C-alpha cells in the first residue's frame, strides 16, 4: 500500500512550490495521471522577484510576459492581475490574452514574419505598440497603419552581436532576430530608424533586443547596452534628435532546474547602474522593460505521473511511468534534465536507475542527474517532474494517439481547480479528422 502521508515534494533548498503528497495522490485519483499542476502564487511571486531585481532603476520598470512559453488562459489571467505587459508574436496569442482579460494596451507585438495581413489584423484588434526587425516589415506596418488610420508606437529590434553564453543564443550570427546597428543596407537599424522618423503614421518609441535563454553571465547585457548607447548617440548626430521612450532588454533570466543560478536581483545589481548611466547619457528617462517566459512560469508547475511497471535488465533498474516525452518534449529534443522525485521517496537504489516513458520509441527515456531522487520507486507510486511550466504545455503532442492530460491549478485562495480539461480519445479522434469521415 502506498504511503500518502503529508510531506512536501519540494525538498529543502529546492524549487517551489510545495504540494503535500496527500494532495497529489488525491488529485491523481480524481483526475487520473499524468496531470500538470500549476501554483498561481508562484506565478505572482516570480513577477515580484523581477520587479525587485530592477527596483534601483531610476525610471519606470515594466515586466513583460512572453506568452509563447505557456498560453494556458489561467496563467495569462494570473499575470493580467499583476498589471504586466504581454510580449506576443502571433494574432492567435492576442486572442488568448484578450479572452483571458488582458488589454491590447498592454501588448508589445513582435512579429517574426512581419506580413501586412498580420499587422492589419493586430491593429484592428487594438494593438498600438509594435516592434519591427526588417525594412519590409516596416513598410508593411506603415501601410497597414495608414489603411487603419491609426498611429503606431514603433520600436526597432536590434541584434547587438555580442557573445552570449547561454542554453539558447539569440545574438552574434543569429540573424533571424533583429537588425545590425549599421550595415549599409535597408535592413540596418539606422536605415529603419530613419524611415520611422519620416513616416507620419509611425511614432518612434524605442529599442528592443533579446540575447538568449538561460543566461547565467550578465556580461552580454552590459556589452549590448554599451553598443546601444554608442548607436543612439551616433544616430542622433546623423538623423537629428529623437526621443527614446522604451528600452526592452528581452529575456534570458535563468531557471534553476535544481541547481544554483543567478537571480533577477543578481542581474539587476550588475546592469542597473549602467542603465541609469544610459539615462543620463542620452537624456531620456525611458521605461525599462524586461521580458520573461521561462523564468515567470517554469517553477510554478509540476507534472505528476504514476509508476506502472518496474523491471531489472542487467545491472540497471527500469522505472516505467504513464507519461511519455509527448508531454515533456524538451526531454527528447534537448535532453533536458528536469528535477524528478518519487512520492513518497525511499532509499536510493543500488542499481543504476533509468526512468522511461510509455511510448514505443527508444528516445522516450527521461534524462536524470544527481539532482533526481528516484529511490523507493515502485508500482503505484507517483513520480513528480518539477519546474515544467515553460514550453511543456505548449509542446504537447498526440504521439501514440495520446490525449492531452488535464492541467490543474492551485489558485491564490488555496483551492484546486481545473485549468484545462483532459482530452479524451473520442475528442482526439474527432480533432485528427475522425469527424471528417463519411458516415
Q: What is this structure, in a nutshell?
A:
Helix content is 30%, strand content 21%. With 439 residues, it is α/β, with parallel strands linked by helices.
Note down, in words, how this protein is organized:
It is a single chain. By secondary structure, the protein is an alpha/beta fold. The protein folds into two domains: about 20-40 and about 300-430, Beta Barrel (Lyase, Ornithine Decarboxylase, Chain A, domain 1), CATH 2.40.37.10; about 110-290, Alanine racemase (TIM Barrel). It is about 30% helix and about 20% strand. It has helices spanning about 20-30, 40-55, 75-80, 90-100, 115-125, 135-150, 190-195, 220-240, 265-280, 295, 330-335, 425-430, and strands at about 35-40, 60-65, 85-90, 105-110, 130, 150-155, 170, 200-210, 210-215, 245-250, 285-290, 300-315, 315-320, 340-345, 350-355, 365, 380-385, 405-410, 415-420. The strands form three sheets. Strands 1, 12, 13, 14, 15, 16, 17, 18 and 19 form a nine-stranded mixed sheet that branches. Helix 2 crosses helix 9 (about 265-280). It is globular and about 70 Å long. The model is unreliable at about 1-15 (pLDDT under 50).
Amino acid at each position: 500500500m502506498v504511503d500518502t502521508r503529508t510531506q512536501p515534494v519540494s525538498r529543502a533548498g529546492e524549487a517551489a512550490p510545495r504540494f503535500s503528497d496527500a494532495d497529489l495522490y488525491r488529485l491523481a485519483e480524481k483526475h487520473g495521471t499524468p496531470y500538470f499542476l500549476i501554483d498561481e502564487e508562484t506565478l505572482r511571486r516570480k513577477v515580484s522577484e523581477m520587479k525587485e531585481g530592477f527596483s534601483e532603476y531610476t525610471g519606470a520598470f515594466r515586466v513583460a510576459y512572453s506568452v509563447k512559453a505557456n498560453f494556458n488562459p489561467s496563467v495569462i489571467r494570473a499575470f493580467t492581475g499583476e498589471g504586466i505587459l504581454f510580449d506576443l508574436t502571433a494574432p492567435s496569442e492576442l486572442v488568448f490574452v484578450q479572452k483571458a482579460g488582458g488589454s491590447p494596451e498592454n501588448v508589445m507585438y513582435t512579429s517574426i514574419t512581419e506580413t501586412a495581413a498580420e499587422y492589419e489584423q493586430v491593429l484592428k484588434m487594438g494593438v498600438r505598440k509594435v516592434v519591427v526587425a526588417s525594412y519590409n516589415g516596416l513598410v508593411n506596418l506603415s501601410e497597414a497603419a495608414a489603411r487603419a488610420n491609426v498611429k503606431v508606437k514603433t520600436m526597432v529590434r536590434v541584434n547587438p552581436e555580442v557573445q552570449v553564453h547561454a542554453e539558447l543564443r539569440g545574438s552574434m550570427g543569429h540573424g533571424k532576430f533583429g537588425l545590425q546597428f549599421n550595415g549599409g543596407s535597408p535592413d540596418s537599424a539606422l536605415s529603419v530608424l530613419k524611415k520611422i522618423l519620416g513616416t507620419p503614421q509611425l511614432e518612434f518609441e524605442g529599442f528592443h533586443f533579446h540575447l538568449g535563454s538561460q543566461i547565467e553571465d550578465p556580461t552580454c547585457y552590459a556589452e549590448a547596452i554599451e553598443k546601444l548607447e554608442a548607436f543612439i548617440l551616433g544616430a542622433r548626430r546623423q538623423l537629428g534628435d529623437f526621443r527614446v521612450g522604451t528600452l526592452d532588454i528581452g529575456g534570458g533570466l535563468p531557471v534553476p532546474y535544481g541547481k544554483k543560478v543567478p537571480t533577477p536581483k543578481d542581474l539587476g545589481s550588475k546592469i542597473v547602474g549602467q542603465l541609469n548611466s544610459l539615462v543620463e547619457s542620452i537624456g531620456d528617462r525611458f521605461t525599462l522593460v524586461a521580458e520573461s517566459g521561462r523564468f515567470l512560469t517554469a517553477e510554478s508547475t509540476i507534472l505528476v505521473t504514476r509508476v506502472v511497471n518496474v523491471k531489472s535488465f542487467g545491472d540497471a533498474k527500469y522505472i516505467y511511468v504513464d507519461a511519455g516525452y509527448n508531454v515533456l518534449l524538451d526531454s527528447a529534443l534537448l535532453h533536458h534534465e528536469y528535477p524528478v522525485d518519487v512520492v513518497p521517496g525511499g532509499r536510493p537504489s543500488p542499481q543504476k536507475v533509468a526512468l522511461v516513458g510509455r511510448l514505443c520509441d527508444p528516445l522516450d527515456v527521461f534524462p536524470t542527474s544527481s539532482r533526481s531522487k528516484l529511490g523507493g520507486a515502485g508500482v503505484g507510486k507517483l513520480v513528480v517532474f518539477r519546474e515544467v511550466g515553460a514550453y511543456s504545455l505548449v509542446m504537447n503532442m498526440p504521439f501514440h494517439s495520446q490525449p492531452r492530460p488535464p492541467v490543474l491549478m492551485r489558485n491564490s485562495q488555496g483551492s484546486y481547480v481545473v485549468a484545462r480539461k483532459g482530452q479524451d480519445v473520442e475528442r482526439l479522434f474527432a480533432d485528427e479528422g475522425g469527424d471528417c469521415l463519411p458516415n
